[in-house]
Write a structure and sequence with these properties.
The structure holds 2 protein chains of 2 kinds.
Chain A (H helix, E strand, L loop, with lengths): L1 E5 L3 E5 L4 E3 L1 E5 L4 E7 L5 E7 L5 E3 L5 E5 L4 E6 L8 E9 L3 E4 L3 E6 L1
Parallel strand pairs in A: 2-12
Antiparallel strand pairs in A: 1-4, 3-9, 5-6, 5-10, 7-8, 8-9, 10-11, 10-12
Chain B lengths: L4 E3 L2 E4 L5 E6 L6 E7 L5 E8 L2 E4 L8 E4 L6 E5 L8 E8 L9 E2 L3 E5 L1
The chains are: A mainly beta, B mainly beta.
Chain lengths: 112, 115
């Protein structure tokens, strides 16, 4: 069994300040973990993924995430928010043969 | 390399009609997944298919919903006798294999509205 918990449904930051979107997971397997971004009325775009290589994963648009097994966390960060980062972000865990479980999403608001 | 294609992008049906959603995976991908996103919710897994086979349909409602991925042509998600509760965005994803670390690439979605 696997599950994903995104701890915040909404996060609001000022432009130019750091972003932290939190994700905790549980999995019976050695999981693969992903972050996807969804802009309004758009599909999902992959930001980054962890697949048991380096624990600090760098993605597109300046985002990165750190896999912490002891904390079962995979938080998404960015040093400086941009207006174009306003979107919904989904943490995803994949185990076994590709059955994935999505978190409920975190809506990021960026204030000018 | 074209991404995952879904059509139509928007579909309006009246209660009791049928809805057919199509998904063409990325070139070289033989694994297709369908997800449903209800308003203000995350994506929920519905079904996983390979060519001509349904591998996992544990997320599919037991009635009115069916999916196929024929040898030739796109994958089809079919909803019979639609009801208002079927209104949602339906996303298709594809991957090259069934490995757990493989990325699933998502299409733009079909937004179904049932009147």
């Amino acid at each position: 069994a696997q599950s994903v918990t995104q701890l915040d449904s909404h996060v609001s930051v000022s432009e130019g300040t750091p972003v932290l979107l939190r994700c905790n997971y549980s999995s019976s397997y050695s999981p693969s973990l992903f972050w996807y971004v969804q802009h309004p009325n758009k599909g999902l775009q992959l930001l980054l993924k962890y697949t048991s290589a380096a624990t600090l994963v760098k993605g597109i648009n300046g985002f990165e995430a750190e896999f912490k097994k002891s904390e079962t966390s995979f938080h998404l960060t960015k040093p400086s928010a941009h207006m174009s980062d306003a979107a919904e972000y989904f943490c995803v865990v994949s185990g076994g043969y590709q059955k994935v479980t999505f978190g409920t999403g975190t809506k990021l608001q960026v204030i000018p | 390399n074209a991404g995952v294609m879904q059509n139509p992008r928007h579909l309006v049906r009246r209660r009791g009609q049928e809805a057919r959603l199509r998904c063409s995976p990325m070139k070289g991908h033989s694994h297709v997944y369908w997800y449903r996103q209800l308003p203000e919710e995350g994506l929920k897994f519905m079904v996983y298919l390979q060519k001509e086979n349904i591998i996992d349909e544990s997320g599919m409602p037991k009635e009115r919903f069916s999916a196929e991925f024929p040898k030739e042509g796109p994958s089809i998600l079919r909803i019979q006798q639609v009801v208002r509760g079927d209104s949602a965005a339906y996303f298709c994803a594809s991957s090259p294999s069934s490995g757990g670390s493989d990325t699933q690439y998502f299409g733009p979605g079909t937004r179904l509205t049932v009147l």
